[in-house]
């Protein structure tokens, strides 16, 4: 069995590749990075290290090859001959690989499932629609499955130099399950032990985004303002820990109102999530979790989507909105998306930006709370300043 993985980054290698190799698949990576392609072909393996506290599990992934996407014929052939196709290129890059995937599907004689390992609520649909735009009219796209995935593992680091002759190492935490949309799959469905096939994928996606991801983002954006570099350091701050727990409770209440309390989980579920955030062994940077704030502030994503669902349940989501306000303050010169958001706020003002990015009007209740939080956070801010007290909003 062969798996074609478009993308050779942390999720492609450290999660999707490791799980597929464990299920018996031979891996071929399709990548733009010529040095990475050469390295994988030269070494033929890489290492995945799963760390939690003092426990570290290492696994070498063997039987690995790679194809440069610039070699169109070879890339199309890899897709045409695969038993399962995975994309792991980042949400903003799906459009750029859609034409290649379309060519690969046209070259096939058998159906196949395509899994989008992207951090998107509707990754399968987004990819399917992008691919469809590059197919001839009447092409039987229904013969192919397109599903988003809910990824449980955080893969935070890649260690090693592709120019060297030693295997690269990917560092992540232990969870291995991933959820796919059973309604979107076609036969044959690949047998992957850690794959959970869900019939109500939207509910699972909301649960992940509005509880776990909302808490992760809250930790990152408040942690950034308080000067923390790593998630495990930020979550140990008593004020941030309390804010993260409350933001997740707000998201949980929204989920419970729609999908039931049992599905939403209770206090033990939140405690498990906080414990994962505190995993210092993976050194998860605040900047990684906080990057691309506009996408994470969109109306259906982890902060504003959770806030809207909580509000429908009769809960005013104060902590989620404070986290969103902190996201609108996120300054990172290395993050082009964050810089673009800050420039838009500077030129157009917060209120128009808020409506464009989050679909919220400053005059409605959610908007008023968010704007009030932003004013308290942003006005005293200056480069290299550190928030001393979240409760009192005291800056250094």
Structure description:
The chain has 396 residues and is an alpha/beta fold. It has helices spanning 10-22, 34-43, 72-80, 94-106, 123-132, 201-225, 231-234, 238-259, 261-264, 267-277, 286-290, 293-296, 304-312, 318-327, 336-348, 350-358, 365-378; strands at 2-6, 26-31, 46-52, 55-61, 64-68, 84-87, 113-116, 145-151, 155-159, 169-172, 178-181, 195-198, 387-389, 394-395. It folds into two domains: 2-199, Rossmann fold, CATH 3.40.50.720; 202-395, N-(1-d-carboxylethyl)-l-norvaline Dehydrogenase, domain 2, CATH 1.10.1040.10. It is built from 17 helices and 14 strands. The strands form three sheets. The chain has an eight-stranded mixed β-sheet, with helices on both faces. A four-stranded mixed β-sheet has the order 4-3-10-9, with helices on one face. It has a two-stranded antiparallel sheet with strand order 13-14. The longest helix has 25 residues, at 201-225. The protein is globular and about 60 Å long.
């Amino acid at each position: 069995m062969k798996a074609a993985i478009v993308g050779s980054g942390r999720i492609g290698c450290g999660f999707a590749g490791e799980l597929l190799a464990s299920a018996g698949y031979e891996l071929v990576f399709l990548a733009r990075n010529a040095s990475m392609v050469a390295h994988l072909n030269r070494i033929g393996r890489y290492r995945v290290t799963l760390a939690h506290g003092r426990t570290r599990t290492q696994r070498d992934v063997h039987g690995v090859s790679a194809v440069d996407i610039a070699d169109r014929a070879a890339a199309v052939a890899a897709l045409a001959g695969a038993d399962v196709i995975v994309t792991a290129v980042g949400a903003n890059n799906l459009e750029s690989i859609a034409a290649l995937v379309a060519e690969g599907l046209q070259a096939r004689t058998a159906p196949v499932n395509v899994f989008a390992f992207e951090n998107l609520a509707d990754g399968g649909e987004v990819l399917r629609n992008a691919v469809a735009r590059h197919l001839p009219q009447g092409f039987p796209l229904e013969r192919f499955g397109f599903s988003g995935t809910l990824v449980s593992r955080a893969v935070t680091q890649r260690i090693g130099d592709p120019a060297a002759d030693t295997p690269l190492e990917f560092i992540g935490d232990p969870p291995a399950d991933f959820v796919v949309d059973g309604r979107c799959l076609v036969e044959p469905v690949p047998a992957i032990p850690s794959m959970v096939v869900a019939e109500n994928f939207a509910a699972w996606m909301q649960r992940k985004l509005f509880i776990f991801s909302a808490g992760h983002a809250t930790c990152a954006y408040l942690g950034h303002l308080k000067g923390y570099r790593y998630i495990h350091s930020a979550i140990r701050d008593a004020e941030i820990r309390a804010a993260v727990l409350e933001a997740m409770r707000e998201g949980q209440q929204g989920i419970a109102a729609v999908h039931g309390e049992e599905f939403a989980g209770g206090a033990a579920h939140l405690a498990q999530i906080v414990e994962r955030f505190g995993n210092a062994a993976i050194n998860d940077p605040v900047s990684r979790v906080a990057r691309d704030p506009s996408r994470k502030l969109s109306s259906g994503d982890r902060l504003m989507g959770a806030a809207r669902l909580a509000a429908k349940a009769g809960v005013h989501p104060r902590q989620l909105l404070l986290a969103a306000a902190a996201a609108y303050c996120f300054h990172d010169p290395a993050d082009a998306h964050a810089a673009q958001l800050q420039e838009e706020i500077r030129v157009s003002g917060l209120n128009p930006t808020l409506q464009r990015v989050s679909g919220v009007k400053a005059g409605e209740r959610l908007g008023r709370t968010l704007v009030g939080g932003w004013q308290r956070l942003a006005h005293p801010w200056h480069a290299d300043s550190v928030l001393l007290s979240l409760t009192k909003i005291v800056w250094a």
